[in-house]
Amino acid sequence: MVAIGNPGLDRSGSLKQNRLLKTVSKKELEKALGKWFTNARDREGNRALGAQWNHDRSAVQPEVNVSVENQLLALKEVNTRQNLEIRGLKCKISSMEKSFRLMEEKLYKVENELNKDPKPTAKRTGSDMSPHRKAQKPRLDAASADPVNTTQSLLSSALETLQKSCSDVLPTDRIHALLTGTSELPVLRDEEKYVISEFCVNESSAETFLSVILEKIKVERGLMGHDLLQSLCRVYVGVCQQRGDSHKAHALAYRLLKEDFLEVPKVIMVMVTAWPSFLSYESTLCRAIHIVSNLKAKGKIFHLLTKYLHWDEEPPGNIHDAITSTLKSFLEDSSLRFLENSWYGYDLCPATWNYIFSLDLLCAQLGWTWTITNIIRKDLWLVLNTWLMQARTEQTPFRDVCIAAVFRLLGRLGQLGLKENMLTSLENLAKSINQFGMQNFSKGMPWEVQLSVIYAIHDLAPSNPEAALKTLESWRKNSTRFLQIIVDFHGRLKLYGGQFQSGLKLSNTFLQLFLFCPPVLKEREQEREAHSVLKSQYESITHNNQHPGDLECLLCDLEGLLDEAGKKHEQVMESNVQLQKEIYKLVSDMDLLQSSAQQKEEELLQTNRKCSMMMAEEKYELLMSQVDTLQDSVQHLENKLREKSRKREEKTKEMGQEQEGHSFLQSTKR
């Protein structure tokens, strides 16, 4: 074992060391010195790093902790304030919804009172003349006077039961419980189950009941409370589930979305509570319902639909891609066929109507201008031109059933142009279809396709009724087949064409009035009928000219009744207009509050993201400062190492000189 001395010894120690160095080679000496310096450097570096780390940690850590705590407290305060604001907004929205429901109930009561008021009639004492009565269509929601008509009484009883038992299926607290998983989907009420069981006994009664529900939803849209709408939709879907008829359930959802009913995403969710799997079918219409519901839903209803329709696992997709793929599948589907129908002649199969409803619903979300530019002109008209080029006996590339469906689709898409009052472009489309029919009816066009062209011409007739009437008359003259519905079309178009020129300027105003005030228009018609009855009685009495005293009394009574009816009519009109204004204002305020609440939620999410980013940046800066400190420490140690190495070389050089001197002295002594 070789002992290596410390280079820093005094002179006496160095002499002793010199004697020991005689037995050590230069290579071993360098190796031993290197090992010693390495150990010394490691010990010194560890001490320096430990001291530096403790110093940095004691200096930086309190500042970082204080900064992070302050930021977290500030963010917590902001979140608390925003949560309070969101709760306040939700309370306001709830109160607005209650007010809106009260307004709807009030309007509904007004309509019922008007329907119950007896019409003023007059009858001469002792006269055998009964007042003229106009035959009226029996109401579906009123009890039938004929006890034999059990179906009518059953319908009235069912509607009355639903009216009395209806309530909001998804109130705010129930929605929150469903989202948090603390509640299950609400099931059908006992009253709803009873009504469903009553009408599922046979096929005809179920069909009648479903038709009555659709008619009631259509006619009483502006007056029906949202609770009753929910109950009707649940019962409708429940009947469809018992019959296994998903097509009708999808058609109802299509109608609600297409006509943009109030809170339609919530109604779709209510239908899901009655039949949870009715939107899980692999059909184009089902996919379109998913896409449009996804576009319309907002807030908690959106999250609720996402959870129960599994949008997080399988997103509905893009609307433009859906239109393209649906149109392609529609034109390539070989299973589509015609169905014979005693009324329509030939109808399309349910699968074909699914394609038509899907494209109609999706295009309605993009507007008439986009639809006519990108679908009608670029795709559908190209299909029709290609079909004209192929021989009549061929079914490639396009089959006759697809062409018939294209015309039915054009008729439905045209309703979108009517709704947006785009009469010029719609008139051009109707003119093109009229020319198409006039030129090809006599050239071997299949009968099924001819019928579809006539239906499309009828659907687009409001844009140009005279041209539609001319085309229909020409077709009837050359056609050897008879259909009663075509006769009805002809009479309707003839009547419409005669009134078109005088009523074109007022059509838009009348359409809006008809959409928003149907009960008032109905009441006005009833008042006109009563006025006609009274007037006919007055003229009859005047013509007979008997009993002048009775005539004067009757005349005074009639004038009083007419004045009272006129005042009542004016009051009803004013009240209805005021109610419509209040409802519109409430809906606008509710939409504004909902958008504000949505914005607050988005701001809260943005704040949380900023908090996470700030904390990550703080950690990153702390690590970078530690890296810089370590790099400085390493640089400092490297400098010290170089200094030690330089001193070692100097000592080694001195030791070599001393050794040479020692050797010289020994040689001199000898």
Automatic annotation (TrEMBL):
Residues 111-120, 635-661 have a biased composition (Basic and acidic residues). It holds the Pfam family ICE1_C. Residues 305-481 form the Little elongation complex subunit 1 C-terminal domain. Residues 111-148, 634-670 are annotated as: Disordered. It comes from the Eukaryota. This is Little elongation complex subunit 1. It comes from Silurus asotus (Amur catfish).
